[in-house]
Amino acid sequence: MSSEHQEWLSAASDNQSVSAEQLDSLLSDADLQASWLRYQLAGAVIRQELAPPLDTDFSDRFAAMLDLEDSHQLVAEPVPVLQQAMASPVNGSQPAANQGWWKMLMQGAIAAGVAIVAVVGVQQTQQKPDDALTSPLPVLQTNPIGGVAAPVSLSQTSVESRFTPQQQQLQVEQQRRLQELMQARQQQIRLMEQAAAQQAKKDATDEGKGQQQ
Amino acid sequence: MKLTLVRINAGWLLSLAFCLCSLSVVADDWQQFERTQQAVRKFNFDVSFVQVRPNHLITYRWLHGIHEQTGTLAVPLELERLLLQDGVGTDTFRRGDKVYYAAPDAPVIVTQNDSIKELPAILFEPLPVIQQLYDIVPGSSVPLSGRTAQLLRLSARDASRYSYWLWQDAETGFPLRVDTVNEQNEVLDRWMVVHLQLKPGLPAELQSLVSAQLPEQPHALMSNQVPQAQFKLNWIPPGYQLLAEQAPVSTRSVPVLANWLLSDGLHQISVFVQPTARLPEQQLRDGATTILVTTRQNLDVTVIGPLSPELAIKLAASVE
User: Fold this and answer.
1) Nearest residue to B311 (alpha-carbon basis) of B257, B239, B242
2) Does A120 touch chain B (CB under 8 A)?
3) Angstrom distance (rounded) from CA B139 to CA B153
4) Distance (Å, whole) CA A197 – CA A182
5) What are phi and psi of B56, to 5 degrees?
6) Looking at CA atoms only, how far is residue B107 from chain A in angstroms?
7) What pLDDT does A39 receive?
8) Residue A152: what pLDDT?
9) Tens-place pLDDT, residues B62-106
10) Are B243 and B255 in contact (CB under 8 A)?
């Protein structure tokens, strides 16, 4: 009986599943709980999960160290300050300034300062229109397209797996076309001024020809 | 009760002060903005910046310097370089009014431009063009990287155009951050300096560019393609103009039947017409750029530009 118990308990401590009855018996039986603890400990030792055990004389050494500590130091410190303050009556009002209405006022000022900072902070964050950069726009599907001087590479990230291979092929085709048009546009813009200059030159020569005739 | 009264008074005083100041201050604000435009042209600097978009962050290094040429009537020569901080990509140089794009495994492309188009246009385009499209409103100053940054809001006069929030270094006027925001003040695209080093002279890295042998002739342009006549654009977003002469467009997979480039002096919108690929209509976004693909009969119309999806749809529908 007991060996049977030990078997499932051992399995359970190795993360095997337990039935509801077994769990109930474990919860009600103190002996089973003790062996459960032993299994866990044994498992931890085998897996080398245990922290190095404490020495038996640990508490003795700790007590010895406590004795070595000068425990009266903290209490002794404020005494000379008080004596000094009492010895010089001219400075007697100084400690009082730290405690009365002054202190309350200072606390209030600090609180007000924090409130102002908080209000300013909130306003600042509200002004920042950064949302659109981090979240895609509702109308348009976001899609990375090659940057200005970057090599224009085909992006297939938007092609989702729910499409059939044929549809995917079409989408890739569409992407390629768009990349080409983006490049064509870039070329157009680069050559725009030159085209305008050429046009102006052509107009000038046409005009010259007209005048000659 | 007392508190509300005080607040109303303060608010009233503030608005009064604002009204009095605003008349004389607007000109000053544009002067402040001009400081930024001057800073990126006149300073010698070594800067790193990030381009932040949803799902997308790229870091660049940007060098700029002025080379004082010898000779009696010599004008200072502007040298500039833009390169990826991480990875391999196009290395962009500018010497005076020529921009060179050196991509790996490709010949160097030369274009005629007095600024690198991949940098925020707002920093380089002429002030009158910007003043026509935007009102300037100064904001509060905030610390950025331990420096004091003054916010200048360039709010679009036309609601369909995106606005810019520019933070400039209070001391030097150098741009530290440029946010492109929509009407709801949501940030669509952020350009932010993460490292700024102003130099007393031309950065050493640009020294070799002074005398480097680079192709002289810019990329030659063909005149307008013939098939364009088949199609026309019946509507153009407010403030934009159709550019008469355009660079030819070449694509590898699907031919482009017609294309247009619209510009308001600061932004560009591209429209492409292609034979259809029988795909569903698509709306995509890359930072502040909207990409719209519409399908109609046997044509695909693609609109790419910094405009709202509604306007993009309207523009695509106007192709005939």
Assistant:
1) B239
2) no
3) 7
4) 24
5) -165, 125
6) 14
7) 84
8) 36
9) 999 999 887 777 788 999 999 998 888 889 999 988 999 988 888
10) no
The answer, for A115 touching chain B at a CB cutoff of 8 Å, is: no
- Report the range out of A17-21, A163-167, B122-126 with the highest average pLDDT: B122-126
B219 to chain A, minimum CA–CA distance in Å?
A: 8
Tell me if ipTM is over 0.90. Answer: no
The one-letter amino acid code at A32 reads L
- At A211, list the tokens: 């005048």
Distance between terminal CA atoms of chain A?
123
Q: Please indicate whether residue B280 or residue B84 has the higher confidence score (pLDDT).
A: B84
Question: Does the distance separating the beta carbons of A129 and B277 come in below 8 Å?
Answer: no
**Is the pLDDT assigned to residue A163 strictly greater than 80?**
no
> Which pairs from B31-36 meet CB under 8 Å and 24+ separation?
B32/B138, B32/B150, B32/B152, B32/B168, B32/B173, B33/B127, B33/B130, B33/B136, B33/B152, B33/B154, B33/B166, B33/B168, B34/B127, B35/B168, B35/B173, B36/B123, B36/B152, B36/B166, B36/B168, B36/B173, B36/B174, B36/B175
How is domain B19-211 classified at the CATH fold level?
outer membrane lipoprotein receptor (LolB), chain A (2.50.20)
Q: Rounded distance, CA B302 to CA A144, Å? A: 17
Query: Which residues, other chains included, contact A200 with Cβ-Cβ below 8 Å and sequence gap of 6+?
Result: none
| Closest chain B C-alpha to A30 CA, distance in angstroms | 59
Angle of helix A20-28 relative to helix A2-13, nearest 10 degrees, comes to 100
Report yes or no: A129 at the B interface, CB cutoff 8 Å: yes
CB B294 within 8 Å of CB B316: yes
Residue of B85, B216, B249 to mutate, interface with A, max A Cβ within 10 Å: B249
- Residues of chain A contacting B144 with CB distance shorter than 8 Å: none
SS3 at position A200: helix
Q: What's the CA gap between B97 and A194, in Å, rounded? A: 10
* Closest chain B residue to the Cα of A126, Cα to Cα: B185
Q: Which two tokens stand for residue B104?
A: 């790996």
Sort out which chain B residues have CB atoms less than 8 A from A193's CB and list them: 111-114
Task: Map out the domains of chain B as residue ranges.
Answer: 19-211, 227-317
User: How far A190 CA sits from the closest chain B CA (Å)?
Assistant: 6
Contacts of B60 (CB under 8 A, 6+ apart): A149, B48, B49, B50, B51, B82, B83, B84, B85
pLDDT for residue B34: 94
Nearest to B191 by CA among A133, A193, A135, A145: A133
Q: Which of A123-127, B161-165, B194-198, B236-240 has the lowest mean pLDDT?
A: A123-127
| pLDDT bracket for residue B172 (50, 70, 90) | very high
Domain formed by B227-317, architecture: 2-Layer Sandwich (3.30)
Chain B residues whose beta carbon lies within 8 Å of the beta carbon of residue A184:
249-251, 256, 259, 270, 272
